[in-house]
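Aim 2, interim progress. The first record below pairs a target sequence with its structure tokens.
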Amino acid sequence: MTDDATPDGAPDDATTGGATPDDAVITLLVVDDHPVVRDGLRGMFESAPGFRVLGEATSGAEALDRAAALDPDVILMDLRMPGGSGVDAIRELTRRGARARVLVLTTYDTDSDTLPAIEAGATGYLLKDAPRDELFTAVRAAAEGRTVLSPAVASRLVSAVRAPKAPGSEPLSAREREVLALVARGTSNKEIARELFISEATVKTHLTHLYAKLGVNDRAAAVATAYERRILG
């Protein structure tokens, strides 16, 4: 045997040099209630090198379970889904200290959607009409912990930060309105959590946020102010 021969069982650099090591692959969890969207995203990422789709979820609540079981690098998260919203899931993932970065991928770019998602802990926010290459770049950036925003969303956030707001003038999110409506019916935090399929901690977070937006300090004042401003009834 010559000195430059490869011993039996040893890897040959010439044949393995082009392989992609597992730690270079970005793993994903796709969360969307529309099967066509999930199938499209899975096919897109599985056809591109450097990505692996570990699983799918159809709601925010299911996303929490799947994220805990699969431990993906990046979660592609829709926002408005039955059975648990994306914002609630992002907030709970943040509370749990999940390793995964969350990249919102949605059709909605209103202030009531973008701001709560970013505040909840989303690393990035893209719209579903983003080009394929832009989405790939965004996922790579999110995996590295870099913030990624679509131009439309970035513009909205800048405007929201610059615009002066009077106390209590910020609009309530759809979920905050749901919580407030249940509070007005005398529903306890535990009952609200059960009805909306979220944790009691998340209910308390929603209450804290809506109190701040309404400029009040308790449930009774929140309900009274909501009726006064015709947010309820």
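The second target in this work package is listed in the same format:
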Amino acid sequence: MNIRAMILVLLVVVFAVAMGAINFASLGSVDLEKAQSQGTAWVIQNTAAGTVPHTVTITNNGTQAVRVNQGQLLESPDSQDLVVAENMTISPGSNGTVQAYCTEPAQKATPGSSLKANQAANPMVLFIIQSSTPTDAASARQAQLKIWSLKTGGEVDPYTGEAAAMVKTSKSSYYQLRQDLSTAREDLSSQFKLSNESLPSLADQRDGLTRWLEGLGNWFKEFLGT
């Protein structure tokens, strides 16, 4: 078995185990997307642009517990789109604070904005999140830069949006950010056995089940070299 096939099998196993754990924990509860569609849950952006990871407050006014899963996408027309970085169950009539990475480096987060749950991130983003430690600044920063690189096909503009805000918040430099972005691209290429030419093709892996499946199929073809 070649190295690409071995890594592919590992990713599939990790994804299946994660989904199985989520399904096991789902008894007597409802996922965030459904809770929002029922009008019993609200998600509010807490942190300002440049924060890594961001945090959101989820309010559950329903009669069932609300499941919040790693990889859950949170979207807003007025703020930064996010992807949840941890699993949490929020009891009826309570609030929970959840960590999340942002997905659009050219946009900025706006505290107080509402977000809406929408499907789940693609497996590569989920794998990056599961491999990170959001409470560790260095690990969280590395994961954030990898997610940005996947989202943009490796073309992150360090002078706009969340990327520029990160420099200001961390009291770093644009030079350091460019260096870290370059390292993130190299790590992605090594971790997923991708060439520099294949990274841009990942930029169109958008949200939604149909587009997620399409992106996953294209990635499998690239991964296996077919």
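The chain has one domain: 3-224. This observation will shape the mutagenesis plan for the next reporting period.
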